[in-house]
């Protein structure tokens, strides 16, 4: 391997793009229900859609989606991407749920109001975007079927919830052999966790729906979405809520993939603990007000600056460690870009702060630029769609 090169002078701090769009075991694992119970009646948004200022697609007015399809199964959101005659469309639902006590009248009322939910035992599970509305109304927090990028073993209904939200976004295929490509994280380098179970559960569900289903590494999906002009060569980093996924891609081949189990949730929780505020409040401020390019104005913003720096330091040091110790890094004569996507890159000033962190490390490749994905929340689903479409053409 060539002598690692100092990248301090290789980065071109171009103007930052706008980041606002506005071994598988068959045994049942502890904490998991491998399927939806027969008596768990699903209901959802079949009458009308609720007001939707976030731009998320809700209600049952989503047209039948034709394959190929890209599916991003994220800690915070599930996003579907598909082709229309003119362009790529995306729909999104919050990957979350909120529980309320069951009563017959409540169930009927929720159905009439277009709320996505299912009933099991003595509880109603409010799903997707509706869950956040209920959490805010009751002064509580939503719960997530996915934690740190993989299925949450502490939630008994994590699989049922995830399946239900997927079924809201996509229907069974219209024809045989329609392809769907879904995102999976890389194996974490900092935690003894495996993505095999997580990946297999999702694939089984999509196969049972009737799709030809394949997975794609989340970091590679970012490369396929954003680096077509660079022959799909570069480093893709998806900075989501639960983790950061990294892929070194050479001509679309994922040479190195891994993940770091720190992300937006980590920032929210650490800042919240530091300033004695709920993480949900920190999340709103981070997503709607934070500007990392200016000095913090208060204690919460100070905390956000500190933990963004901590995340970027962890991420850049992981790049130095993993790439520097690998024999798979190709010998490249040209510098390559790094592209960042995911909800954690939405605040202004992310590019500048990430470059600052990179200047403290040495990599075996030169970096030409840091690019923020055009639509950070949709990049993974779009890249999965690119892969699905390519596989369908090959067939």
Q: How much of the residues is beta strand, in percent?
A: 15-25%
Q: Return the CATH topology.
A: Nucleotidyltransferase, domain 5
CATH architecture: 2-Layer Sandwich
Number of domains: 1
Report low-confidence residues grouped into runs of 5 or more: 1-10, 12-42, 44-62
The number of E-state strands comes to 18
Individual helix count: 10
Which term fits the overall shape? globular
Taking all Cα atoms into account, the compactness measure Rg is 21 Å
Average pLDDT reading: 85
Give your account of this protein's structure.
The protein is an alpha+beta fold and 395 residues long. It has a single domain, classed as 2-Layer Sandwich (Nucleotidyltransferase, domain 5). Helices cover 32% and strands 23% of the residues. The protein contains 10 helices and 18 strands. It has a 5-stranded mixed beta sheet. The protein is globular. Residues 1-10, 12-42 and 44-62 have low confidence and may be disordered.
Which helices and strands occur, and which strands form pairs?
Blueprint: E1 5-6, E2 41-43, E3 69-73, E4 77-83, E5 88-94, E6 97-101, H1 104-112, E7 117-120, E8 123-127, H2 129-138, E9 146-147, E10 150-151, H3 158-169, E11 179-184, H4 196-209, E12 212-217, H5 218-226, E13 234-239, E14 244-250, E15 253-260, H6 264-275, H7 279-288, H8 299-324, E16 336-341, H9 350-358, E17 362-363, E18 367-372, H10 379-394
Parallel strand pairs: 3-11, 11-12, 13-16, 16-18
Antiparallel strand pairs: 1-17, 2-7, 3-4, 4-5, 6-8, 7-8, 9-10, 13-14, 14-15
């Amino acid at each position: 391997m060539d002598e690692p090169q100092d990248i301090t002078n290789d980065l071109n701090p171009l103007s930052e793009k706008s980041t606002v769009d506005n071994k598988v075991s068959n045994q049942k694992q502890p904490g998991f229900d491998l399927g939806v119970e027969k008596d768990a009646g699903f209901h959802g948004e079949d009458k009308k859609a609720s007001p939707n200022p976030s731009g998320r697609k809700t209600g049952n007015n989503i047209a039948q989606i034709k394959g190929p399809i890209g599916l991003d199964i994220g800690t915070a959101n599930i996003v579907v991407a598909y082709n229309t005659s003119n362009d790529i469309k995306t729909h999104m639902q919050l990957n979350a749920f909120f529980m309320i006590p069951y009563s017959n009248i409540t169930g009927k009322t929720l159905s009439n109001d277009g709320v996505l939910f299912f009933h099991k035992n003595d509880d109603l599970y409010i799903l997707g975007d509706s869950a956040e509305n209920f959490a805010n109304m009751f002064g509580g927090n939503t719960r997530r079927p996915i934690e740190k990028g993989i299925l949450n073993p502490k939630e008994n209904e994590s699989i049922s919830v995830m399946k239900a939200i997927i079924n809201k976004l996509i229907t069974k295929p219209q024809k045989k052999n329609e392809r769907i490509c879904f995102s999976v994280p890389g194996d974490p380098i900092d935690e003894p966790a495996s993505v095999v179970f997580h990946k297999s559960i999702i694939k089984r569900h999509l196969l049972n729906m009737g799709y030809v289903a394949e997975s794609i590494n989340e970091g590679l999906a970012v490369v396929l979405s954003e680096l077509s002009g660079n022959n799909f060569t570069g480093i893709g980093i998806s900075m989501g809520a639960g983790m950061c996924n990294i892929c070194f891609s050479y001509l679309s081949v994922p040479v190195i993939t891994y993940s770091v189990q720190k992300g937006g949730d980590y920032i929210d929780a650490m800042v919240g603990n530091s300033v004695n505020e709920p993480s949900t409040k920190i999340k709103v401020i981070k997503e709607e007000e934070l500007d990392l390019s200016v000095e913090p104005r208060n204690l919460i913003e100070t905390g956000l600056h500190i933990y963004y720096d901590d995340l970027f330091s962890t991420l850049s040091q992981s790049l130095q460690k993993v790439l520097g110790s690998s024999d798979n890094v190709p010998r490249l004569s040209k510098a390559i870009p790094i592209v960042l996507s995911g909800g954690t890159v939405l605040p202004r000033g992310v590019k500048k702060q990430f470059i600052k962190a990179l200047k403290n490390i040495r990599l075996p490749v030169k970096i030409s630029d840091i690019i923020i994905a055009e639509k950070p929340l949709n990049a993974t689903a779009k890249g999965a769609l690119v892969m699905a479409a390519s596989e369908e053409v090959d067939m």
